[in-house]
Amino acid sequence: MSDVLPELEQKREILRNLVEDHIKRRDELSQEAHYYAEERDKLNQKSKSMREIVMKKIDDKGQLIEKIQKMRNEKEDHFKELSELRRELRKYRDSFKSQGADPSELRRKEKELQRLEKTQQTTQLKKDEEKRIVLEIRKLSNDIRKTREAVEKELKENDSVKDLSGKINEKRKVVDEFKKEIDEISKQINGLGDEISKGLQELDETRKKADEFHEMFIKFNKESEKEHEGFIKAKTELRDLEKILGGMAAKTRATRKKEKEGELQNKANVLFDKFKNGEQLTTEDLLILQKAGFL
Asked: Which domain of life is it from (predicted)?
């Protein structure tokens, strides 16, 4: 037994060190796993907030698209009304009978002007003929301009023209306001589109980072669990070995006690023989006889 004891005590020391190593390594790995879990949770929370922001912008963009579609339809209705007013004005102007100009005479002069201009441009003319045509073109142009100015002056003072022109101007303002607001909303939609694209890209990158941290958490958590299993195994072996060594120590103590009691008995027997023979005993001798049960 004495030969085995040093070997067992050495093994106990090795197991104690192994238990400490497993505990230290397990705690370090657990701390790493905890770090990556916390960072993963932060990124997941960030992803959630980012997704809510992106979804809000997508919803806003959808509402703006719906709004701009309605506005375009309304603008189209107003533009149709504007076109109708313009047609009505042109129709009225074409049918307007001026007090100072004959419409048929004006049309005749316009046709004659066109004919002369075409002749000048396409026909080889003598110098005096070209000069005559140039003078006629100039005279006709002045006559037509003066006639049109006179007609235009009458038209401007005409109540029907004033009313139609006023309606056209008001309707044009409405159409222009719609166009301006539609352009502004279009810019907002384009801006939101860019923000959504950027937000989705950042969201994807954040999710990927969270997945990477989750993988690291799983890795370190598994290694920590493995170290804990090693700790449990080493701890169990150490406890079993402690029981064996404890049993051996108890047995050794019992043996030593028995040997000591045997020595005491032998010594007491010798002293008792001396006592019977009338020899003088010391106080210590008497105590030995008492312990041995002779007194």
From this structure: Archaea
Q: Is the pLDDT of residue 226 over 80?
A: yes
Could you tell me how far CA 164 lies from the centroid of its own chain?
A: 56
Residues 72 and 202 in one domain: yes
Q: What's the whole-model pTM score?
A: 0.58
> CB within 8 A of 246, min separation 6: which ones?
none
- Do both 90 and 186 map to the same domain? yes
pLDDT tens track for 228-260: 999 999 999 989 888 888 877 777 676 676 667
Q: Are 144 and 113 in contact (CB under 8 A)?
A: yes
Name every residue whose Cβ is closer than 8 Å to that of residue 241 and which is 6 or more positions away in sequence.
Answer: 8, 11, 12, 15
- Extract the tokens encoding 189: 């939609």
What is the C-alpha separation between 256 and 2, in angstroms, rounded? 13
Rounded distance between C-alpha atoms, residue 295 and residue 286, angstroms: 8
Residue 289 corresponds to which tokens in the numbers above? 């006889």
d(CA 84, CA 164): 10
H or E segment to which residue 126 belongs = none
Is the Cα torsion angle 109, 111, 114, 116 positive or negative in sign? negative
Question: Per the domain annotation, does 55 fall within a domain?
Answer: yes
Spell 4-24 as b/e; 16+ CB within 10 A means b. eeeeeeeebeebeebbeebbe
